[in-house]
Amino acid sequence: MAITFKKDRAVFTDMAGGEEAESLLEWLQKYPKGKIDLSECTHMQPANLQVLMAAKRPLHARPKDRLLAAWIDTAIKSGK
Amino acid sequence: MTPLLEQFLSESRESLQGIGEKLMQLEKEPNSSDLMIELFRLVHTLKGNSGLFDMPELTRVLHAGEDLMDAVRNGAVAYSPLLADRLLDAMDFVGMLCDEIEADGSIHSRHINNSVHLADALRQLIDVNSAHSPAPACIAAEQPPASAEGAPPTQQQFSLDDLPEDIRMGAYRSAVKGAPLHWLAYSPDEECFFQGDDPFHQARQTPGIQWGSITARRAWPKLSELDPYCCILDFTVLSSAPHDELEEYYRYVPNQVRIDPLCRQLLILPQGDPNGGPVYEDFVADALSLLLSGDIAGLTRAARSMLELSNPDLWISSALRWLLLVIELEPDNIGIQEVILLSLRTLTQPAWHEFTTHGGDTVHPVAAAAVPCATEPVMPEPAAAPHGPEVAALIAAQRAILSLPDGVAWLSGRIRAAAATLSGCLHAVGSAAGIAEMEASRDAALEKGSSAPLLSWLNGFFEPELSSEQTEHTDQSDETAATISAPQQTDAAVKFGRRTEDAYSGPKSIKVDQAKIDHLMNLIGEMVVAKNALPYLAGRAETVFGVRDLSREIKAQYAVINRIAEEMQDSIMQVRMMPVSFVFQRFPRLVRDTSNKLEKEVNLILEGEDTEADKNVIESLGDPLMHIVRNSLDHGIETPAVRRALGKPAAGTIVIRATQESDRVIIEIRDDGKGIDPDVIKRKAFEKGVIDQERLERITDQEAVNLVFAAGFSTAEVVSDLSGRGVGMDVVRTAVEKVNGTINLESEKGQGTRISLSVPLSMAITNVMIVESNQQIFGIPMETVLETVRIPRADIHTIKKNQTTVLRGRIVPLKTLNSLLGLDVPPKANEEDELAVLIVNLQGEPVGIVVDDFRETVDIILKPMTGVLAGLSAYSGSALLGDGSVLMVLDIKEII
């Protein structure tokens, strides 16, 4: 699993696949204060991205991947 | 090109022709449902086949055609000549693509647009009542009004403003160096996740990507109502890749992507804190005078010092950075620099859509539309213009500029610029007379501080386009978009329509009735025989008529005819050649189904599938092979439990291998099953009366194993639906022998069985040896002849009335051909009292046939005995010899 769900945060590593979007969505609903850590993320299937955008949760850590970070920034920004 | 692709192309051509014919027939009887169904079937097949290959352009059009025909078939859409036209156009297009695939092996991405237009044209017919289905250009064009209507204000569309300055500057730099700039909007299908697409990945990998953004098409619902698998993301990408490359990259989703060229000036968008409003008039005035006097160094200095004095977050700093960049990259492009400076006066974005560069390339209106700051409606280019498209575009652009609201600081500059362009246009179209009039209007406009006078002159002067254009302009935006795409569509139609006529290329393969090939085969056979008459003729010329020169010439001619005839024969044989994969291909399925039924595990290995042989030979192998494989599955391979107990791998293996050995094809079927137990065979054979007590006692194991080929033999305890009816192996043997093949079986108990079939490559030509007996000649097939020997009469011994001789330490039974044929004449010996003995192979055993004399070997076309003579089993057939005489070919097995 490319997303590890803890009580206080969801940690993304490598590539998050589309099938993980559902668990991500559940987790976000269960932990309204949970943080998102994308630092080790290299790519995510856009279903995950949609969940993150819809959740409007601030990112705890941006991806280290500079290019991905730029994309994610625009996505988060557009939701505001 | 793969064989599969070749087959696809040839089938497609047939289907296309069929579709054309059906459409023509439908024109005569538009209500025939049979024709409709047939037509649908053809389009459906074609589309299905195209899906095997990576050809989205082709599949897209065919898919639309299929949907349309489905609607027609179901009566939802009535047949109309328009429908036929569009379908024919689409099929022409498909045919053209097929030609291209054949020539280049792939489809060029330039066909994407045509493909989309044709598919849209077809789909449009499916629901004629609905509006024109949006062409790709329209989707994006419709977006701004759509978002203005419904979407909540939180959803913002990304625009060039949102690009970080450094990225825009980087893109500007590369654009100045000549790289193209494209603004790409990608709106993936909502269902795309279910098709396994990752549009984000697709967007990230866009060639030449400079920057990209993601926006949501709609406001996000509450998390509890969110469907994460409905894609509502839009992607926007700034790319410096050429248009073709982008089109190629997005070739699977052309209708979800809109690619617009972007003018680099549009990237110059100073941003930042206005710091209390426009207060830089002094600087702007100084800088403008420096610029107009050509003092670039001075301007640079002034800009630098101003930049140092200003807070970098200010609007002016951003503008100055751009100014410096432009000075650095394009010091001669005073126009751009001027516009940047002028923008400092008002602290508003430079109005690039009014800007005309020195080269005369106005900012592309479409690109301007992509920038949301251009809130003014943008005129589409007129569809037709009397002065050529370039001039018309320029005039349209000027008209658009002049239609902009007055009351801006740079109005005078705008009017002058428009007037200058118009003057150029007038020169270009040869109406220099209008210039004075235009200049008068310009002066009036400048005086009044309004563009109206010049605009009214323009409208008056270029009246013809105005009326049409204004109606277009006042129409709904989607209709405007439709009119834009319509001319492109006709262009496309004309373009490929012409190409199909120019580059007609016939299909490369043809289907021929087998009877025709057989006829050809017979003719070449006769030709071979006829040509064999020439050496006789040459001999006669020399011996009978004594003309030596003529004889030599005939021989020379014969050599030539012989060469051609042999090549012809070869070619015709090639036509009839088929790969053994034709029979092999059914085995994987057979083995899978049968082994499942028997609850066995079997691996099938096929080797040498491309080995070729004559069509008749290959076809005749089908049933015997099937039988052998079934036998192996049923009797050979054990169940996994038994195999494990024996220490064998649970899954058995059956290998079918085809190889070519000189002029024969060897097919070997090998399994690693339980093999054949000779004792069981012996007992069974005895029980069924196949062998008698005496034979049972002295039969060898190898001989016993070969008893399975005897008629009426079956070892299976239970008759299953697979095998065991006792008609197995003898049928196999008969079938193989019918094509002059031989079959050989080896088996080791517990280790497996190996059956090898040897069949000739072709049955047409038989090599026979001619022997003479009782002043008659007979042919004996060479494959049965082992050797020819001359045996002194003294070496012939008689054992119990049977003549024998000892050849290399082995007793060989002898039969005289005369007695075999019922002729009561003793064989002739030569001067040394030696008898001519032909040693033949009779089911693995040598048998000597005593004849009078040996003659040469010849290639003949063996004609089976027909009619009343068909019952004569002693002969396998007859053949015509070069001198016109008939040669009877003996069937050795039958006569002994």
Q: What distance lies between the first and last C-alpha atoms of chain B, to the nearest angstrom?
A: 54 Å
Q: Strand order within the widest sheet of chain B?
A: 14-18-19-17-16-15
How many domains comprise the coordinates of chain B? Answer: 7
Beta-strand content bin of chain B: 15-25%
Quick one: how many beta strands of chain B? 22
> Tell me about the biggest sheet of chain B?
6 strands, mixed
Per DSSP, the total helix count of chain B is 32
Any idea what the CATH architecture of chain A is?
Answer: 2-Layer Sandwich
Give the percentage of residues in beta strands of chain A.
25-35%
Residue windows where pLDDT falls under 50 for at least 5 positions of chain B: 129-156, 356-385, 464-495, 497-501, 717-726
Tell me, what is the CATH class of the largest domain in chain B?
Answer: Alpha Beta
Task: Give, in order, the helices and strands of chain A.
Answer: EEHEHEH
| CATH fold group of chain A | Transcription Regulator spoIIAA
